[in-house]
Amino acid sequence: MSFRVLVIPEDPTYNGYILKPIVERMLAELGKPKADVVVLPDPRLTGYDQTVRAIRGDLIDRYRHFQLWLFVPDADRAKGLARLESEVAEQGVHLFCCAAVPEVEAWLLAGHRDKLPLPWGDVRQHRRLKEDIFEPFLAQFGDSRSPGGGRERLVCETLSNYRGLLSVCPELDDLHKRLQTFLSQST
C-alpha cells in the first residue's frame, strides 16, 4: 500500500504547483519515492481561517484515510499551529503544520536567488513578497501558457539543489526532520 499524504494549502490553485513537487521530493529523500501526494481537491478552500475551520471540521471525516496531512499556510497568518496539530491528533489524524516564511512562493524563489532584485534575507522578510518580488519574477521567468504559469517547472529547478533549499528555508528543514522522525516511528 502506498503512503498517502494530503497537502492542505491556503491557496490550492497556485500553491499546489509549488507544494506538490516539494513534498514529493522531501518524501523521496526520506525513503518514500512512491508516496501518493494529493493537494486537497475538494472543497476549494481560500484563506487561512476557512482552511483551519475545514481542518477542524469536515475534512476529518472525508480525508481520514490519508496517513499524513500537511497544512502549509503563509507565516504572516499562521497562529496556533501546535494546538491545531494536537486537536486533530485527538481525532486520529496525523497533521504536521509548516508555516512558509514569509509565503509559499519564497520556497520557489529560494532556488533562483541569483535572479532576485534583493538579498535573500530581505526576500524572507518582505511584507509584500508575492506582489513585489514573486509576480515580477514569474512574469519574467515563468510561462504564462502553462498551468500554474510555470511554477512547477521553476520549483523543479529549485529542487535540483534540495539541500540548498533546506539550508535557506529553515522551516522546510524542520519539516524534513519531523517527517524523518515520523516515518522512522511508523515503520
Can you describe this structure?
- By secondary structure, the protein is an alpha/beta fold.
- It has one domain (4-181).
- Helices cover 53% and strands 10% of the residues.
- The protein contains ten helices and four strands, in the order βαβααβαβαααααα.
- The chain has helices spanning 12-29, 48-56, 58-63, 81-89, 105-109, 120-125, 129-141, 151-159, 162-168, 170-186; strands spanning 4-9, 36-39, 68-72, 95-97.
- Strands 2-1-3-4 form a four-stranded parallel sheet.
- Helix 1 (12-29) links the parallel strand 1 (4-9) and strand 2 (36-39).
- Helix 1 (12-29) runs parallel beside helix 8 and helix 9 packs across helix 10.
- The longest helix is centred in the N-terminal third of the chain and has 18 residues, at 12-29.
- The mean pLDDT is 95.
Structural class: alpha/beta
Low-confidence stretches: none
Number of helices: 10
Describe the strand arrangement of the main beta sheet, using strand numbers: 2-1-3-4
Cα gyration radius (Å): 16 Å
Order of helices and strands: EHEHHEHEHHHHHH
Outline:
The protein has 10 helices and 4 strands; from the N terminus they run βαβααβαβαααααα. The chain has helices at 12-29, 48-56, 58-63, 81-89, 105-109, 120-125, 129-141, 151-159, 162-168, 170-186; strands spanning 4-9, 36-39, 68-72, 95-97.
Q: Secondary structure elements and their pairing?
A:
Elements: E1 4-9, H1 12-29, E2 36-39, H2 48-56, H3 58-63, E3 68-72, H4 81-89, E4 95-97, H5 105-109, H6 120-125, H7 129-141, H8 151-159, H9 162-168, H10 170-186
Parallel strand pairs: 1-2, 1-3, 3-4
